[in-house]
Design goal:
The chain is α+β, with helices and mostly antiparallel strands. Strand 18 and strand 19 form a beta hairpin.
């Protein structure tokens, strides 16, 4: 059905009145080929059997424009893929010259881009039996080019690269200025660093540089509907602090906190204080090693592209969302996560029988096993956050860093208290405060689960966890947390347990939870929630048919229905040519459309349509619709049509609320003027 609708849209354009817009807002963009030029190596790339080499592509960008880098967290990240390679040659990595670290002028978020000459390298590995001689490879690049006003739809270009495979096994790197080796000698070339490359080593590459995994070079097209997020949330520093906080919070849970004085007391039994401190230090190092090994395993499984895969894969988001729900229920005392008791007994017995380093390591493993029911939600949640919130070349290291920081914070008190046993008397006594902390963190993880579940819903286009629904559920979680802290909601407590006393800490927590309810309230009507927008579905989710965006009904990806309604009611048709990856489009929709000068005009007697021109499979068709209607494929572009289908106004690029309101008034008057005459 959808292909028929698309074909009918183009057919309708072919029979629509042929007229130029009465006026044009914004300047028409130049030809994309005039903005970005890609060239391959000027000399053949010399490859040695059993070795590696780098084929370097050069791009030049017109002044005032920029191309997003391979690892840009926002925008339209560059994608590079070797689509045709000779037998025995494979692409094993990507490099790029240092991009510009900038702030997107539309959204105020950090991005990485090239705004002048730059180089991108494709690392090639050659097998020992690769056929000798000259070959031709094809490298496909897909990129987005923008200025401070508009973005053109993603462009795809193919660059041909000449290769020469010779005998020998020495690693080489070839770029635009790579000299040909003397006949009969092993192939050689310039150091990749000479071309200004910042990323890299592959197998025997001569210089140690930071790699960019090919899978992180842009978000797959199927995930275009995923909400744009900043790379890594708070960045590595913020993630490190989150991991440290998780380690300290896990330490304060009922499964762990009572073990602190017992464990420190066991170290203090030694007559020598130095030996006791040494055992405690060894125990702390062993705890760090146990948890960090778990992080290393996660890093190995995820690889450098883990963050991008998680952010793009709805199945993984669904699994993580369900996992967070289970962890939350565990912290709330409704579900118990516990390893078999025999495991703890065996490990603890082995640690007592064996001394030295092995005994200390086994004691750390015993602590991890015994405390599993309380630490599992923190460890699992942290690893999920590391996988889903990473970005850039360091994404693969986040699980490793997270577990190292978590375990260091978790183990530090054992070492400190062993060094100063007198501090044990100052520790707070175990009590209901631990259950309060544990339950509060359970509500936090329950709210976090909604983020992953809504991501899966958004990519699949199910439309169940819409922005208002997620806001309502988050408000409900916050309200339940407030009731829990006020002692009105009892969870995971034995029957007949007396009601907890509501002290200052509980009261402050309840006030904060109720404050979160008030902060989220505007989101129920589709409004912006600045303090929580990063955790909520986007304000303008992709959808099909006539969908509500705030209080306005939009025909999304259905121009036929919009034209039919406009003709039936005799109203102007406002068409928003937008894109999933267009940050300028998001800025217009979030800042200009709701402005007091603009909102009454868009909310009046107007039919509204929204076409996404950068998605698949329908994006190319909508892009052609845009080109025929407006004469440009830039994003954002807005067109106003009369009820008879005549284009009476076009605006391309960003605009202030006053400018856009003036455009709309003039265009709407032009659209309905003939009908009033």
């Amino acid at each position: 059905m959808r292909p028929l609708l698309l074909l009918s849209a183009l057919a309708a354009l072919a029979t629509a009145p042929s007229a130029q817009p009465a006026f044009m807002g914004g300047a028409p963009p130049p030809d994309p080929d005039d903005l970005v030029v890609w060239t391959g190596p000027s000399d053949p790339v010399r490859l040695a059997r059993g070795g590696t080499a780098t084929a370097t592509l050069t791009l030049s960008v017109a002044e005032g424009w920029h191309v997003y880098a391979l690892d840009s967290p926002l925008g339209i990240p560059l994608r590079v893929e070797a689509t045709v390679l000779p037998r025995g040659v494979r692409a094993v990595g990507l490099r790029q010259s240092p991009p510009v670290d900038a702030v997107d002028p539309s959204l105020g978020e950090p991005v990485r881009w090239f705004d002048g000459p730059a180089t991108v390298g494709v690392d090639l590995a050659v097998t020992a039996d690769a056929p000798l001689g000259a070959h031709t490879a094809s490298v496909e690049v897909r990129y987005g080019v923008c200025d401070d006003q508009i973005c053109l739809p993603p462009q795809t270009r193919t660059v041909e690269v000449s290769l020469v495979v010779a005998g020998g096994a020495s690693a080489v790197a070839s770029g635009p200025s790579a000299p040909a080796p003397p006949p009969g000698d092993a192939p050689s070339g310039p150091d990749p660093a000479e071309a200004g490359l910042e990323t890299g080593p592959v197998e025997k590459a001569p210089v140690e540089m930071e790699p960019v995994d090919p899978a992180t070079a842009g978000v797959p097209e199927a995930s275009a509907a995923a909400p744009a997020r900043g790379g890594g949330g708070e960045g590595l520093a913020g993630f490190f602090l989150l991991a440290v906080g998780a380690g300290l919070a896990a330490l304060l849970t009922p499964c762990v906190f009572p073990l602190v004085p017992l464990t420190v007391g066991a170290f203090s039994h030694d007559t020598s204080r130095g030996r006791a401190l040494g055992r405690a230090l060894g125990f702390g190092v062993a705890v760090v090693a146990v948890f960090t090994a778990l992080g290393a395993a996660a890093s190995a499984v995820l690889g450098a592209a883990g963050a991008q895969r998680v952010a793009a894969d709805p199945v993984v988001n669904l699994v993580l969302g369900v996992a967070f729900v289970v962890f939350a229920l565990s912290l709330l005392g409704l579900v118990e996560l516990r390893l078999p008791a025999s495991w703890a007994n065996r490990v603890e017995g082995a640690s007592r029988r064996r001394g030295g380093v092995l005994g200390t390591l086994l004691a750390a493993v015993a602590l991890a096993v015994v405390s599993f029911s309380c630490t599992a939600p923190f460890v699992g949640g942290l690893l999920a956050t590391a996988a889903a919130d990473g970005g850039g070349a360091a994404a693969w290291a986040r699980p490793l860093l997270g577990m190292a920081a978590f375990s260091a914070a978790f183990a530090a008190p054992f070492v400190v208290l062993a060094a100063a046993p007198g501090l044990l008397s100052r520790l707070p006594r175990s009590g209901s405060w631990m259950a309060t902390l544990k339950g509060t963190l359970g509500f936090v993880e329950l709210a976090a689960a909604l983020k992953f579940l809504s991501n899966a819903d958004l990519v699949w286009g199910v439309g169940v966890l819409t922005r208002p629904v997620v806001v309502a559920l988050t408000m409900a979680v916050a309200a339940l947390a407030a009731l829990f802290l006020l002692g009105r909601l009892r969870l995971g407590e034995p029957a007949g347990e007396p009601a907890p006393r509501v002290g200052a800490g509980r009261l402050l927590g309840a006030v904060a939870a109720l404050g979160a309810v008030l902060v989220l309230a505007p989101g129920l009507g589709g409004g912006a929630v600045p303090l929580a927008d990063a955790l909520l579905p986007p304000l303008v989710p992709p959808a099909s048919g006539a969908e509500a965006e705030g209080r306005l009904a939009w025909h999304t990806d259905d121009l036929d229905a919009a034209r039919a309604e406009a003709a039936a009611v005799g109203a102007p048709l406002f068409v928003d040519f937008t894109g999933y990856t267009c940050t300028n489009c998001r800025a217009m929709e979030a800042r200009v459309f709701p402005a007091p000068e603009v909102a009454p005009l868009l909310g009046g007697d107007v039919v509204r349509a929204k076409l996404f021109t950068d998605g698949r499979p329908h994006g190319p068709v909508f892009q052609e619709v845009q080109r025929r209607l407006t004469g440009t494929v830039a994003m954002p572009t807005y067109a106003v049509l009369s009820p008879t289908g005549e284009v009476v106004g076009v605006w391309s690029g960003m605009a202030s609320p006053d400018e856009f309101a003036s455009f709309l008034r003039t265009a709407f008057d032009a659209a309905v003027g003939p009908a009033d005459a």
